[in-house]
Design a protein that fits this description.
Blueprint: E1 10-15, E2 23-25, E3 30-33, E4 36-37, E5 41-44, E6 53-56, E7 66-68, E8 73-74, E9 79-83, E10 86-91, E11 101-104, E12 110-112, E13 119-122, E14 125-127, E15 137-142, E16 147-150
Parallel strand pairs: 1-6
Antiparallel strand pairs: 1-9, 2-3, 4-8, 5-6, 5-7, 7-9, 10-15, 11-12, 11-14, 13-16, 14-15
Length: 152
């Protein structure tokens, strides 16, 4: 079971104007997509020129800021709480084992750091619980800023 520890390392950022609008569907309406979803990895949006603007992380080569905490998601211009340290829940992008070093995939989910080649990756942290499949919620010890040279 995933868990998190609030160590007072949550900071407020703003969902960039480049973030897609929130989508609501059904009766009563429920969140179905868009925005910055809860427990997804985020990075700065360098295209706006504003240090507070963030987007969902889409690359292993851009240093992550942390993991979005607001439920179910934050739309363009809305405030977003981002956990930058400690333990957070995160959405898995595939099977993950306890203790794996984690990086982000192109959808803002955490995945096991690969050894596909001699490449530098930014790591988001280490898995404290396992995931069986895409979409599982796991616990992550956030260790932002570290890069790992993974040699095939």
């Amino acid at each position: 079971m995933a868990f998190e520890v609030d160590t007072l390392q949550d900071f407020s950022f703003r969902a960039s104007a480049n973030v897609t609008a929130l989508t609501w569907a059904g009766n009563p309406p429920t969140y179905s997509g868009g925005g910055i979803p809860q427990y997804y990895v985020v990075t700065p949006d360098v295209t706006t020129g504003n240090a507070e603007d963030i987007i969902v992380a889409i690359s292993t080569t851009v240093q992550p800021l942390g993991i979005a905490q607001d439920a179910p998601a934050s739309g363009p211009g809305q405030s977003v709480r981002v956990r930058t340290g400690g333990v957070s829940k995160a959405i898995a992008g595939g099977a993950i084992s306890y203790g794996d070093l984690l990086m982000v995939n192109a959808s803002g989910q955490v995945v096991t750091a690969t050894a596909a080649g001699a490449t530098n990756f930014f790591l988001i942290g280490r898995a404290l619980t396992a995931a069986a499949e895409i979409g599982d919620v796991i616990s992550v010890m956030i260790e932002i800023g570290a890069t790992q040279y993974i040699n095939a």
